[in-house]
Amino acid sequence: MSQKFNLILLILALIILRKLYTIVIYGNYVCMNQNLKIDETFNLAVKNHIKNNLKEAQNFYNQVLKINPNHISALNNLGGLFRQLGETETAKSFYNKTVKINPNFADGHNNLGIIYRELGDHQKALSCYKKTIEINPNFTNAHYNLGIIYRELGDYQKAVSCYKKTIEINPNHINSYNNLGIVLEELGEYKKALSYYEKGIEINPNNINFYWNAHILASDMNEALSRLKKLYKIDNKHTKAKIMIGALEGYKGNFDLFNDMLTSPNSDHPYVRSAKWIFSLPKLPKIFFNRCSFFDAVIAVSEKSRPFYEFGVWNGVSFQYLINTFKKGFGFDTFTGIPEAWHNEPKGNYSNFGAVPKIDGGEFIVGKFEDTLPDFFLKERPKASLINFDADLYSSTICALNYANKVIDNKTILVFDELIMNKNWEKDEFKALNEFCYNSGFGYEVIAFSFSTKQVAVKLKKKN
Description:
Layout: H1 2-50, H2 54-67, H3 72-84, H4 88-101, H5 106-118, H6 122-135, H7 140-152, H8 156-169, H9 174-186, H10 190-203, H11 208-216, H12 221-234, H13 239-251, H14 256-262, H15 270-280, E1 286-287, H16 291-300, E2 308-311, H17 317-326, E3 329-333, E4 362-366, H18 369-376, E5 386-389, H19 394-404, E6 413-416, H20 429-440, E7 442-449, E8 456-462
Parallel strand pairs: 1-7, 2-3, 2-5, 3-4, 5-6
Antiparallel strand pairs: 6-8, 7-8
Helix pairs in contact: 1-2, 2-3, 3-4, 3-5, 4-5, 5-6, 5-7, 6-7, 7-8, 8-9, 9-10, 10-11, 11-12, 12-13, 13-14, 13-15, 18-19, 19-20
């Protein structure tokens, strides 16, 4: 009886072990099949995504997530898909899921930075890019994106460092050469800027951005035309290059191409309208291609014994350049960005986050013009050598002009930083200047301008 019982137990144990083995084998088979299905479905999603079949791609990504809700690549790619569709908040939610699942997922932090930049939250973008670099110090695009943020915040030196780091990691990162040139140009380091554009052309001779940016650094019109014509040879559909070639040839006296544009579909282009205004002036003013050469020419004919005034200081780059000559300057700004939306630029853009520049010889008056200028000009102020209007908005510019009237005479040079070339230029500083002159009984003579930097310098004169 005991032996028979033991035999029965042995048989039962063998049956149980066999079933357990079958379950394990089946479980592994199911798991393998699921993994295979996930891989196949994810690959289908990616293929459709690449082909821009976004609905199909989304469907396949969702199938992957039904099997594995924590599939980090599917979540990340869905974030990219919704960003393509312009659904920024949805994209952000997917990227947030990726870093919640894996706090060290560098791509997720980088992509969140891109989203926050698009939403205008530069500080959160900054934090995301720094986190990406903390996780992966050689994450090329995080350094590049960080450079973009610093440039937009007006911290040009940090932007330069970021772009240089990007190039150190990837010597062929073409966009970093371009952006590095732009920032160095803003800092007035033109030779260095041009060297980066030339390096970019060496890497990719067909990249039109380098020719466009290099023409701004031209020392004369022929050099500018040469670079623009090289660009146009590569891309004969580049509207801005074609207009600029026509405008510069017109400035030299050959109006054939420009006159054709006046009856073309591009006749209402802001560049065409700007050039048309320049050509309508009684006397052609001197033309310049970059900010420093423009300022140098204006400074050369100014009353250097007087102080200058600047309305719209932002990060103080222009102020610093001017103070080197005039030694004393008055700067007016909120330092928290533009006080209202400026066409496509949202309220608060060009913020220095309340940080007032520390520049020897500079006296800064903080606040909105309508709040600070009445009190400032209650006291008699010295006549201005030069006034730099960089407030962009019509409302801010007309306010500044009306109060600055007390320090303007026939020796004062007025510089407008955004007078021409923008889509709505006739509604902004241009409108403020003409309205001010009409109400005050002034005319004006344009003495210098730059198509490239949009700057125009004028001297007022009393109408007879």
